[in-house]
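Hi P.,

Sorry for the delay on this. The queue was packed all week, but I finally got your sequence through. Input first:
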Amino acid sequence: MKTLLKSCVLAISLLLGAISAQAQKSGGTLVFLVQPEPPSLAAYVSTSGPIGLVAPKVYEGLFDYDNDGKIVHVLAESHAVSADGKTVTFNLRKGVTWHDGKPFTSADVQFAIMNVLSKVHPRGPNTFSEVESIDTPDAHTAVLNLKKPAPYMLRALSAYESPMVPKHLLEGTDIKSAKLGNKPVGTGPFKFVEWKKGQYIRLDKNENYWRKGLPYLDKIVGRFIPDASTRTAAMENGEVLYGAYGAIPNIDAVRLKKRDDISVTTDGYSMINPMALIEFNTKKGAFVDAAVRKAISLAINREFLIKNIWFGYGKPATSALTSNFSATGLHAAMPNFPAKGDTAAANAVLDAAGFKRNSDGVRMTAVLDLIPYGEDWRRAGEYLKQAMGDIGIKLDLRYEDVPTWLRRIYHKYDFAMNVNYFYQLPDPVLGVHRHYGTNMIRKGTHFVNSSRYSNAALDKLLAAGMIEPDATKRSAIYKDVQKILAEDMPVVNLFELQFLTVYNTKLKGAYGSALGAYGSFAEAWIDD
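Then the structure:
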């Protein structure tokens, strides 16, 4: 009897396992939110958040990273670093093809890093600054020769951060304006099919994907829904199954998470370290004087922003670096970042700097440009307008579409004060240096030093921090970096963002990557 019972249990278990496996492979369509509509799909040119929601489903990197931050080999089947740290060898997977059928080879890796990412990517020039050359002894081996060790580089090889792109489609073109930018061809689990402007982007299953049996889904559709309440309604009625990076406003997310069919998580952002901030034009306009920028930082009630606009999801900034770098000894709390704000101190700084009020109590006027990524940022702008009014700075708010905003800030430098957020990523070299280095004043490149701040002493420290192997000495370097930036304030960090992902519970398998929504969705499936 016991034997029969065990046999029945085993049979049932195998049956359930087979049903589960079959369910994972049953196809279906995932509709998810892409907010706002991306300016392009050229992830190798721009790190704009909406691009990151789509492009890593099409393109792949040499690595991915799991939720513990460990390397997951993707296009690189394995890798090795020499004892002196100056040679990194990638053994590439065989049998991988681009979506147009051409083979993926080491020549693509060489071209992607040396001709694309190192030159036109916002963060690539820092990430690959030590790469002197790349050898390709055969089609499946790429050897990076470094001037100096660059261990941070191995944290920046995901599809989102360093996508591998097809040499045969980009070589000889103007990379920034190439047709591939809007019709991507990658090696990933989904192939680009259609972009209906103002409505959606459609990606279909790559039937020749190198990971056999994947992806499970037949297609994924990224929808653009400009109105926040309509996005929330679409999530509630099951019209869309997934929304990340504030696509569902926090005010709605805290309500939706009470439902049985909807979950909310802060997972999937561990490699991102997002920081809300204000960028200033340091070359012309109202905020050339560092005293004004410092006064603005003093006046802002960071806790109010977090509590009342982001509903408790965030942590007040205390320096130019996120406190998440404390684990590696790089973060140090600095003055001029009061959590609750200090209006009296801010007014005193402005008075001492000679900025007098007129008869209306106004010291200066300016336009505050708002990142066009949703209603939370509009509300933040309204708060900042009020807070700046308390210290005599009269602001007008400007909210434009994404392409117009990007051109204004990063192409024309036609702004005075810009509310934005930057990813500080797993190491300051990857996410912080681009904000302050003189070499990162790169007109036309998005999410770099738009303030055009330049400080030779800081540049020297940043260069030293890139290559210092001793943890104690590196900590001292970045403490000095933070001291300088706490005084000069070309950027005022507001708070460390905690993004929410809102999803329907029938969507499974979409959460294994540390990149979260910027992952591939190769293992995602729908449990109907």
